[in-house]
Amino acid sequence: MGKDNWRKLLCPTCHQLKTTCTCAIKEPDKSSVVHVGRETKGRGGKGVTIIADLPLNEAGLVELATKLKTRLGTGGTVKDGRIEIQGDQRDRLVTELEKLGYRVKRAGG
Q1: Which H helix or E strand runs over 65?
Q2: CATH code of the domain covering residue 75
Q3: Residue 67 class from Cβ within 10 Å (0-12 exposed, 13-18 middle, 19+ buried)?
Q4: Do residues 40 and 47 touch, judged by C-beta distance below 8 A?
Q5: Number of independent structural domains in the chain
Q6: What is d(CA 21, CA 51) in angstroms, rounded to the nearest whole number?
Q7: For the segment 42-77, what is each residue's pLDDT rounded down to a tens digit?
Q8: ∠41-65-75 over CA atoms, to 5°?
Q9: How far is CA 94 from the centre of its chain?
Q10: For the chain, how many helices (H) and strands (E)?
């Protein structure tokens, strides 16, 4: 790399790497409610926590899922416009999503 080529890799706002920059993420739509529930169907009795009704596109869902999986230290995936996190993580997910500015409602027991 040349003398100042490394500057092209940084976000001009937050000075983080562009690949890890979070300042470009828009504020979540606070008028919609995100539902967090637990599901075991078709998983051999193993439970996953489902996050549904998120006002995000597919790329936004993948980015949010990655962030949540990192913070919780668990695995998960994005399927059918919903985020699935392994295990019963409802309480921790509600806390994390509220920190990010979402209105959250627990679904189920």
Answers
A1: helix 58-72
A2: 3.30.780.10
A3: middle
A4: yes
A5: 1
A6: 23
A7: 888 889 999 998 888 888 889 999 999 999 999 999
A8: 60
A9: 11
A10: 2, 5
